[in-house]
Design a protein that fits this description.
Blueprint (H helix, E strand, L loop, with lengths): L22 H14 L11 H8 L3 H13 L3 E4 L3 E4 L4 H25 L2 H16 L4 H19 L2 H15 L11 H17 L3 H18 L4
Antiparallel strand pairs: 1-2
Helix pairs in contact: 1-3, 4-6, 4-7, 4-9, 5-6, 5-8, 8-9
């Protein structure tokens, strides 16, 4: 495991060190990054003693951080066995994609009805980035996520954004977000083109249908690593 700068609470004299109340949040952020990068792979045991020593902290903020990650679905707490990185089953993927389809389709319909021309231009710019990224899978995934997150931001429903954020984090436990079958990137791009057309036409019913289909097709292409 890589060595990190010790995380310590702020002193009375004041410094760039974190406040005690924020300590667990930074610990959660670091562990989240490791989990999503698969430095801590699905199913692996989280060695609390080792991490506490590495970060230079007590076990208390570490355990609080693990509770945060457990609430996000990234960590599973097992009685008398400790914390483990969550393993994603086929059923998990099916359920996650099902909910993503419902939530993002509803958000897309909201955007079609209420987005300003400037907001639609922002989405178009991200779609253009997606078009330019088709030859680079990692860049394509990043642009794809930016598009979906921007859509949710424009829909402006805090609860939807929070739920989708949690669902997408669980989805990312499946390595590379999902492993695309041959030709899936091109198919996904075509689906995005149709979604953009429906958004610009302000056809809420059509874009809702297209987004549901887009998420469903993504699930069908996803495989466990």
């Amino acid at each position: 495991m890589s060595t990190s700068t010790a995380i310590r609470p702020a002193t009375a004299s004041g410094s760039s060190r974190l406040r005690e109340s924020a300590l667990y949040e930074q610990v959660a952020e670091r562990l989240r990054a490791r989990i999503l990068a698969h430095t801590l792979p699905p199913g692996s045991w989280i060695d609390e003693q080792s991490l506490a020593a590495e970060f230079g902290i007590s076990r208390t903020p570490l355990r609080e951080a693990l509770k945060v990650l457990a609430a996000e679905g990234l960590v599973t707490m097992k009685m008398r066995r400790g914390a483990y990185v969550t393993e994603v089953s086929e059923r998990d993927l099916t359920e996650v994609y099902h909910l993503l389809g419902l939530l993002e389709a509803d958000a897309a319909a909201t955007v079609a009805r209420s987005a300003t021309d400037a907001q639609l231009a922002e989405l178009q710019a991200l779609h253009d980035l997606l078009e330019r990224s088709v030859a680079d899978r990692d860049a394509f995934f990043r642009a794809n996520e930016q598009f979906h997150l921007k859509l949710l931001h424009i829909a402006d429903n805090h609860w939807t954004q929070q739920m989708v954020g949690d669902l997408r984090r669980v989805m990312k436990l499946n390595r590379h977000q999902s492993l695309f079958k041959q030709g899936r990137i091109e198919a996904s791009l075509d689906e995005h083109r149709q979604i953009m057309q429906a958004l610009k036409a302000r056809d809420a019913a059509k874009v809702k249908q297209l987004m549901e289909q887009h998420i469903r097709q993504g699930r069908e292409a996803a495989t466990l690593s």
